Amino acid sequence: MPVANSENRAVPAADPPSILTKVFDLLHAFNTNNRVMTLSELARASGLPKSTVHRLIARLIDLGAVEPHRSGYVVSVEMLSLATNTPAGGMRDAALPFMAALHRWSGHSVQLAVLRQFDVVLLETITAPDSPGPPGTLGSRIPANCTALGKVLLSREHLDDLEAFLPRPMPMRTRFSVTEVDPLVIELRKARTSGIAYDREESQLNLASAAVPIVIRDYAVGALAVSHPADVEITAKVEQALRETAAQIARVCRDDLQRGKAHYFPHEF
Prior knowledge:
The chain has about 270 residues and is α+β, with helices and mostly antiparallel strands. The chain contains nine helices and ten strands. It is globular.
């Protein structure tokens, strides 16, 4: 049935949420702080009626997406395979040995991410014992303007076009986040020239990062970062090792493309 807006014009009513939408609302209720959730907790977090949650959970258990766990439920370990069956998952597999080597040598945390619209998605992180921790969990989306990873990936885009499409104002994670487009674009142009981007407490307080792109055929398929406490300065040697590690990962990915995976391009990893 049409509904009236503030000017009394009839507009179509929004479609009710589909069953698939409800399923994803339910799955997104799980998070790193709530890995085990009861039926009532899932209903509150998802905004769905308890009866709906009960019905969906039963079906998700049948499908192997959710498992019972004592008095609650957890996301099934079988779901891990879905996340890894992507080109980005393949890049993560290739990158892990090099990330581990960089982490051991530098003593800093190391992150791998890809760009999705105006966010970065974390694919992997190796955290140093004295680090404040990564800016997000694996698979989480973080505003690109708030991270060195995002900035270096945005810097590889067509900046004149990007300037027109960036949201105004952009998202803020801390009081240090760059939320105005013009200062960000100036920073992106510098990062494009230098091949490295920085953030200092822009994604998380007490955390600073430097990031470089992983470039294949002049396309940034991902980015690699080292993170450290904001009161610690990284050396030029660490930055050089970061660049060399990204180049090693790119070389392995290029070799994979030549071994029958060329159809991964020109699309994103």
